[in-house]
Write a structure and sequence with these properties.
Length: about 375
């Protein structure tokens, strides 16, 4: 909930009084820790301190991704990407609608490549790679296809039916604005044909319509739908028990992201979006207790690491001081080898006493012989 409302709830329910700034600071700090833990788990080597739990996957699973815009400071809008993972429930009879359950969410404000790497935490935890069958229901954005290629390339790819219907609805709107006549119920009949008989006749009808009318909406629809014809085999998908709508991720965007980050007058600092999204995912994935315990453990480990770093720095500083003292002491001590006495210059003591007479051994021997 918004920070101001959370402060009021704390005071009313628990009698705890905190300021709005304290609530904001503590909440974002907790979200940043949880974001850091998940980033470490998504690394190539995982996290030794926080191993990723492995849940037992269902036989048939759903993976659906989408993006939604969030307002940032400075009048900028940025896209928050979300992936929803769920279990597909096969209907008991053909009249029932295929649905999914046990949804979990992962959301981040980042580019497509980084999001695909970070989302591997949730994808791996839910066992999407180990499931027997997986479908990917989403719109036709290129980054979504790359996301599926990276996590489950053999997934059954389904273009969201409402997304395809939107292109056909744009044709009807433009035709009415320009005064072109379309039969009554044209869109309803076309959508029924697409849903129950596939895209072949719909595309043929649009090609004929393009030859009669030069409307940009028809050209855009043909260019988009032709490229994704294999993802619009709705009769086959329904017969196989797959959903054809991406309502799970649409509601995930509204519940997880929009309900908290797109309030009236809200403008978010970019660095605060992901911590808040991490907290929202923790709540709606029903993992608050698990996440809170891991946060406390991460904080204690961080304190221990900082304490060890400070001890190491102090040890290095003392070692450097000790080495400097040894160098100074070595320079002050006299040398171990005695210096050779300097040879005096000029006349020796014997020369001063006896003149320049020499007293070599030979001269002394001759002198004693004469005596």
């Amino acid at each position: 909930m918004p920070f101001e409302r959370a402060v009021k709830q704390l005071q009313d329910l628990l009698g705890v009084q905190v300021s709005d700034s304290t609530a904001r600071r503590q909440a974002l700090a907790a979200g940043a820790v949880w974001e850091q833990i998940q980033s470490e788990q998504a690394g190539p080597r995982g996290s030794k301190d926080f191993p990723l739990p492995q849940e037992e996957p269902a036989e048939r699973m759903l993976m659906s991704s989408d993006g939604g815009l969030v307002p940032l400071r400075g009048g900028v809008w940025a896209e928050v990407k979300t992936v929803v993972i769920g279990e597909v429930v096969c209907p008991k009879d053909k009249a029932s609608t295929v649905r999914s359950q046990n949804h979990s969410y992962f959301s981040r404000l980042t580019d497509a490549a980084t999001f695909a790497d970070l989302a591997s935490v949730e994808v791996s935890r839910r066992g999407v790679e180990r499931a027997k069958e997986v479908c990917a229901v989403q719109d036709g954005a290129e980054w979504l296809q790359g996301f599926v290629d990276g996590h489950r390339p053999d997934a059954v790819r389904i273009l969201d039916f409402a997304h395809a219907a939107g292109y056909l609805g744009q044709i009807e709107e433009q035709a009415q604005l320009l005064g072109y006549h379309l039969p009554k119920g044209w869109l309803r009949v076309l959508l029924h044909q697409l849903k129950h008989h596939g895209p072949k006749r719909v595309l043929s009808h649009l090609e004929c319509l393009e030859q009669r009318w030069s409307l940009s909406s028809i050209s855009d629809a043909l260019r988009y739908l032709r490229k994704r014809e294999s993802q619009m085999q709705y009769p086959q998908f329904q017969a196989d028990g797959w959903p054809i709508g991406s309502g799970s991720v649409e509601s995930g965007n509204k519940v997880v992201m929009q309900a908290r980050l797109k309030g009236a007058g809200m403008r978010w600092r970019a660095s605060n979006v992901n911590p808040m999204l991490a907290l929202r995912n923790m709540v709606y994935n029903d993992r608050w207790s698990e996440g809170w315990q891991q946060q406390q453990q991460w904080r204690k480990q961080s304190q221990n690491r900082r304490r060890q770093q400070r001890s190491q720095l102090r040890y290095q500083h003392l070692l450097e001081q000790f080495q400097q003292q040894l160098v100074r002491l070595y320079l002050l001590l006299p040398s171990s080898k005695a210096a050779a006495p300097a040879v005096p210059k000029g006349r020796t003591e014997g020369q001063k006493r006896w003149g320049r007479q020499t007293f070599s051994p030979k001269a002394l021997h001759l002198r004693h012989a004469k005596i």
